[in-house]
Amino acid sequence: MILLLCPGPALAQQADEIAYMKTVLTRIQAVSFDRNKELCGVLGRTSTGRLGTSDIHVGSYDTCLIPAFPDKLDIIATFHTHSTYSPNYASEFPSIQDIDADIANGLDGYIATPGGRLWFHDINERRVIQICSTGCLPQDPGFAKETADPSKLSYSYAEMRKLFPHH
Fold first, then answer.
1. How many Å apart are CA 48 and CA 7, to the nearest integer?
2. What kind of architecture, by CATH, is found in domain 2-163?
3. In the chain, where are the structural domains located?
């Protein structure tokens, strides 16, 4: 059912992965909002195929350094929150820095926004895909619809560069 909300051809993520990430990000969104900081980690599979995450790392207001990759997981993606809402940031979109970091790490990525959106960055396709819209995950109590509100469910890397040329 969740995959039907995703545009385009088959994506790199699986339904169990999306459900797991929604659970993890739902749990850490409130902490991100309370601390006004991004939280991040990595998603992977154990030797038995179960999903798991690294320890959650607390970053700053607008960045989070992915922690060391744990040996016990076969890492498949990064994930992070976008902290609290600010009219000074286009925080309802993945940032160019988010995309570039995933590419550098060779990993797909999940991004939770203050509006409660969930994005997936498919590094093979060089595309960000909105898995679910506002309110899908917990929202920052101060969230207000942004001027730079995503009008599409999917953006290529080139489209993101055109939208945010100074980043």
1. 31
2. 3-Layer(aba) Sandwich (3.40)
3. 2-163
φ/ψ of residue 25, rounded to 5: -70, -35
Q: How far is Cα 19 from Cα 119, in angstroms, rounded to an integer?
A: 13
Nearest of 160, 157, 151, 110 to residue 131 by alpha carbon: 110
Length of the chain: 167
**What does the pLDDT look like over 102-144, one tens digit per residue?**
999 999 999 999 999 999 999 999 999 999 999 999 999 999 8
Sign of CA dihedral 30, 134, 51, 96: negative
The H-assigned helical ranges of the chain are 15-35, 96-105, 157-163
Q: How far apart are CA 17 and CA 116, in angstroms?
A: 18
How far, in Å, are 33, 40, 133, 144, 162 from residue 141 at the CA level?
Answer: 8, 20, 16, 9, 30
Residues 92-102: tens digit of each pLDDT: 999 999 999 99
The predicted model scores a pTM of: 0.88
Instruction: Work out the burial of residue 105: count CB atoms within 10 Å of its CB; fewer than 13 is exposed, 13-18 middle, 19 or more buried.
Output: middle
β-bridge partners, 129: 120, 154
